[in-house]
Amino acid sequence: MKLMKATLTNCFLLKIYSIIINYLNLNVGVVLRFKCTSCGQAVSVDDGKPGEAVQCGSCGTVLKVPKPFEKGYIIGDFCVEEHIGSGRMGEVYKAYQETLVRDVALKVLDNDMAEHSEHILEFFKEARVAARLNHPNIVQAYSVNEEGGYYYLVVEYVFGQNLRQLIDDRGKLPVNMTIRLLSQIAHALDYAWTSEGLPHLAVKPENILIDSKAQIKISDIGLAGSRSRFSDGDYKYSSPEQILNLKADTRADIYALGITAYEALTGNVPFDGNIKDVNKKHLEEEALPIKELNPSVPKDLVTVITKMMSKHPDDRYMSFGDLAKDLRLLRRYAGDMSTTSSFSTKIFKTRFSFTEKRNQQRKKSLRLQAFTALVTVMLLIGIIVFNSDKSVDKTVKVDKGDKKRLAEFAVLSQSIDKSVSSVEAFTLFKKIEAFLARYPSSPQAEECLEWREAVLEILIRERRQNEFFSEESTLAEEEEDDLLANSEQGFVSQDLGELALQSERDSMRRDILRFYLGRKASTELLTFLKNSEAYDPIWSEQMTNIIVQANEVRNSLVDEDSSLQGLLIKHGKDEVEVRSIKSDILMGVVDGELKSLSLSTFGLKSLESLLAISSEFPREGALSLLFWYRNFQKCKLNEGVEMSEFEVFLVDEANRMAKFDFENYLNEAKNSWQRNEAGSARAQIVALKKKYETSDLYKLNKKRVDSLEEKIKKSVSRRGKK
Ligand SMILES: Nc1ncnc2c1ncn2[C@@H]1O[C@H](COP(=O)(O)OP(=O)(O)OP(=O)(O)O)[C@@H](O)[C@H]1O
């Protein structure tokens, strides 16, 4: 009885939902639309039958009415271009959204699924939650709708291939590529879990997409419920707790990603066979050691993957955040990732379990602070006693340098566990750096390195840098809209031009340019500068020289990174384009004067590892540049440049990017509202608030957010009345 009641309620809800959707969508059912193959205009036919001949109202061409989802078929705002694949939930098409001028992937639910109201309800509910996620490594969900009895989900189209295809093509993936992949997925799933409490529950190579810039994107996140209604999931990647029907959380995804990494590195899944055998193996058997199948995998990476694949969730990483931290350490400290590197071994002995140690360390830090304070007090007492009692044995006199060091360390350790804002974190970061530079081999250096890591994490992961975005927005709303309507590239160049002109130091200017040459902005920047009132011929000449040198480097690049090369060529990029993509990346680190440097100078093995660094933090691009900069510093090749000034610039850049991101949300919300998609508009506002509500950026723009929110509310209530 209860079940019947629930089903009836669901049906009723679905009915209401359909009525609303049908109301919003006037074309439902009767009108069939498609694109004229001759003039490109949309053709509408009432009760059109596939194959039937009709005339285009615009150009008069006689056309054949296409079958649903054939090329040219229009649903909602989307025109189908081609079929790209099938999944358990239905068919996937590449389509084009005319109004927003973008490619999309259209996922259409299978008829069988669409017949069950509770499936549909779940599908809508989950799609809405998924649309709230906004992360560079997650395939963005754009909208969900129904038309003519077809239920569909529209998501970002990823031009590239999935990991399954890549593994099938290449057998085993290179270590660096696998780590990059793991890092990006870990960041994405950490974000989904911490911000929405969403596990993926179907992590597998088919759901990991790699775009043409080698950026990794995970798809189908948030659709766990809908998916599990349609089938049992992919058993080769199922965690023991899923097999046992126990409650599964983010750690089940860690397991599945471990299996995926194992497969990427060895070319084989650890447990193969029929579902019954594989389930048994997941529960009882240990996988064949990775090194037996691929001896080139570094030992530390094997440790990480083995931990991910632990049978019991408690033995795995507790979160993707922890996994990401270890991967970062792995990449940063494992040097060239060689299997026997003593460097790697040494570092990992002391630092690898850092994330695990961190929690204990935090607990200890109060004790540590007390201890350090005690040391300082004792030191001071010692000094007083020493000064007042000349009979004290002079051999125990504390060295002057040591005294200073201990005092500085005490000050540092006291500020380290405070809940720091980004401004404080940044100051702290610089203090730690200064300490390390002054006392590189002191006993406290190790601790400082770990603190530096932690502070950097605050800056990067919690994006607290947004809090001190203080630039008053002087542009009127329309002007800002215009700016945003320009390409990001134009926006960046113009901004940068201004920055460069304002900058007083040549080295700063060079740095700005160096990091942006890679964005193909140099020519635009030069034009902008030449047309600018504040045109500075010396600066312009310098820049021209750098561009000339940059081109020389570009032309002399040897294409030795065959893996990246292969990947890009596979995606239809020709040799010339591949060369320019790679040199664009290189130009991010090599400035005109240092053109003979190779990547190994920066401690990076290949362009892939460079890519890994740059793509891991796309939003915090400026901060990832900081890492590159650190590599410069290590090589002592840029002594003429003042770190502090440059760091401030980088953080400013991060803030500027945050503003851009903020505006994007607002814009998306506005677009959705204009398209009458109040739900999606509201979701953008909710996401915006979640990210920025406590920031100065939000306070500065609150009026704009409020006014848009008000408009959205009004349109919802207006619709409700109708
Ligand atoms: N956003 C996208 N951009 C480009 N291709 C995509 C996108 N989403 C899916 N695809 C491709 O479409 C195909 C089917 O994808 P879909 O997600 O429906 O199924 P699947 O991941 O293969 O299996 P499952 O249904 O078990 O998740 C895959 O080959 C996938 O690579």
TrEMBL record:
PROSITE patterns: PROTEIN_KINASE_ATP (PS00107), PROTEIN_KINASE_DOM (PS50011)
Residues that span the membrane, as ranges: 366-386
Domain Protein kinase: 78-329
One Pfam entry name: Pkinase
CDD domains linked: STKc_PknB_like
InterPro entries, sorted: Kinase-like_dom_sf, Prot_kinase_dom, Protein_kinase_ATP_BS
Positions bound to ATP: 107
UniProt entry keywords in alphabetical sequence: ATP-binding, Kinase, Membrane, Nucleotide-binding, Serine/threonine-protein kinase, Transferase, Transmembrane, Transmembrane helix
Any one GO molecular-function label of the UniProt entry: protein serine/threonine kinase activity
PANTHER family, sorted: MITOGEN-ACTIVATED PROTEIN KINASE KINASE KINASE 20-RELATED (PTHR43289), SERINE_THREONINE-PROTEIN KINASE NEKL-3 (PTHR43289:SF6)
Protein name according to UniProt: Serine/threonine protein kinase
